[in-house]
Amino acid sequence: MKSVIADHLVKTYRNGEVKALDDLSLDVEEGTVLGVLGPNGAGKTTTVRILATLLKPDSGIATVAGIDVIKHPDKVRELIGLSGQYAAVDETLTGWDNLVMFGRLYHLGKSASVKRAEELLERFSLTDSARRPIKTYSGGMRRRLDLAASLIVQPKVLFLDEPTTGLDPRGRQEMWEVIQELVKGGVTLLLTTQYLEEADQLADEIAVIDHGKVIARGTSDALKKQVGGERLEITVENVDIAKTQEIVARISTSAIHTDIRTISAPVTTGSIALMEALRALDEAKIHPLDIALKRPSLDDVFLSLTGHVAEETVAEPIKKKRGGKK
Amino acid sequence: MKYIISDVMTITKRQLLQLARIPEVLVFSTIQPVMFVLLFRFVFGGSISTGQPGGYVQLLMPGIFVQTVAFTLAATAVGLAEDMKKGLIDRFRSLPISRGAVVIGRTFGDALLNILVLTVMASAGYAVGWRPTSGGFSIFLAFLFLFMFGYALSWIGIYVGLAVKEARTVQSVGFLVTFPLTFLSNAFAPTTGMPRALQYFAEWNPVSSMVAACRQLFGLKNEFGATASSWPSQHPLETSLIYMVLLMVIFIPLSIRKYKNTSL
Question: Do residues A301 and A68 touch, judged by C-beta distance below 8 A?
């Protein structure tokens, strides 16, 4: 069964001048994780806001757990959890205050709210800072508390909008662990991210979106295969560029990209491709300035899918100014 | 819908908790009106002569009370704009709570704050010689009027906060509205000195009606009215009530609808 369905969603801003969503369709199978991957302004947040009943699409249908989000937003709100860039907690209050307040707003009784708050604080390793105002929290702690607030009542569907954007590597790692833990518990999760690695770590399936459209979807493996998995990157002196391009063309079956003196191409054979390249370069008496096997980034995905790098568009001009990225 | 009361109370409680967590807000929101009391009392009090027993401070206090509750409009608006900006409103809107609860809860929180501010000001006024001469019930009624006026205005604050969105702009808009309203009135000086057009404005200004109503309830003659024959200055209590009801009838549904449809 599909827990989330977005069907031909269209959303424009400023009287149609800016198209945030341009006929976007996606769905999430119950109990699985869909990673929505795309650059800033691709339409990720707009999609989440529509599915979480915060925004009405101009046209199209969306359902969550079989319920129409436009016709029955109240019913949908009882089933979802939302956390992310723009759904926030009260920073002047303590973590404990916040969770108890949200418990009350989910209509748990007083003692049930307190009990739930304490459970969640414990579960997200926030017990020690429970009585401190959120504004004294680190970015990672703040996001964990935010996530905890969306789990007060076990949601059927959870939306996480860029849960790690702006976090340092450690905070990101912690957040991933927390989310992985949740996923094991069987929640249906729609997660947006700018990082392929994050989608790779957390999602069963990935939908890549660009300019308000889904441009590719599939498992992480399938997507990587399409992108070519890893990329071989060789930087050489100007005189050697042509020859190096020839060598790379023999190793890679996909398009070669040359950026000043760096020649790069997707490879499927990993370190073997790297050794092949080294051998061929050596035979040709070319001494590379740098040679590396790079894991694919969002840019690579975009390059391979669209032929252009992921560019920030201004489809969501107002939202970009708002808080969250601290 | 059956949870609306508990939802509203939770939101109001949140606001009180905020005040407890940042007591500076509480301190400054009471210091400012006290400062006004002292400044007006001692700067103008000596040079404005009135025919009232007890002097200028008797006429001044109702004016300052009304001005202060009017200024809380800006606080309401700024608070809401900040919640919008920080994404808290989005969070609330994604919860299964009654649609009006968030804004109603905020107006209640601001109303409670107003009670405290009015209490502090009354004490400050008493300390510098303000002595209402009417009976206890009339004085109570005056404070009830002030409280209700503040409450009605906070709904304008809600609307402004939701409509303008940027906290700093909201602050300016708040002052742009409340400053002329409170000064183009009978609150601090007789309106008779104003140009004719402004006199009419001052006469029909809700702030003037409120100030006149409070003066009457505190046992004073409303000395600062201009065209004393106009309906509002002859019926300040009725006029004030009409204004309060009008404001609420217009801005409560407007604000709740704005909250429902608000999207950034």
Answer: no
Size of interface A-B (CB pairs under 8 A): 80
- Best B7, B24, B90, B169 member to test A by mutation, with max A CBs in 10 Å, is B90
A181 shares its domain with A69: yes
Residue A73 and residue A57 in contact, taking contact as beta carbons nearer than 8 Å: no
Closest C-alpha to A128, from A99, A159, A95: A95
Indicate whether A201 and A265 sit together in one domain. Answer: no
Chain A nearest C-alpha distance from B86 (Å): 5
Residue A309 lies in a domain: no
**Is 50 exceeded by the pLDDT of residue A323?**
no
- Please give the residue range of the domain that contains residue A201: 2-79+155-225
- The alpha helices in chain A, defined as continuous H runs, are 44-51, 73-77, 95-105, 110-123, 139-149, 169-184, 196-202, 220-227, 241-251, 271-283, 298-306
CATH number reported for the structural domain that contains residue A221 in this entry: 3.40.50.300
Neighbour-count burial for A228-258, b at 16+ CB within 10 Å, e otherwise: bbbbbbbbbeeebbeebeebbeebbeeebbe
| Chain A closest-CA separation from residue B87 CA (Å) | 5
Contacts with A101 from chain B: Cβ below 8 Å = 10, 13-14, 17
Q: Are residues A178 and A262 in the same domain?
A: no
Number of domains in chain A: 2
pLDDT at B46 over 80: no
Q: What is the CATH number of the domain that holds A271?
A: 3.30.70.980
pLDDT tens per residue, range B104-145: 999 999 999 999 999 999 999 999 889 888 889 999 999 999
Q: Which of residues 87-116 of B touch A (CB under 8 A)?
A: 87-88, 90-97
> Measured at the alpha carbon of residue B55, what is the angle toward residues B50 and B56, in degrees to the nearest 5?
75
Say if residue A41 is in the same domain as residue A163: yes
Quick one: average pLDDT of B174-193? Answer: 84
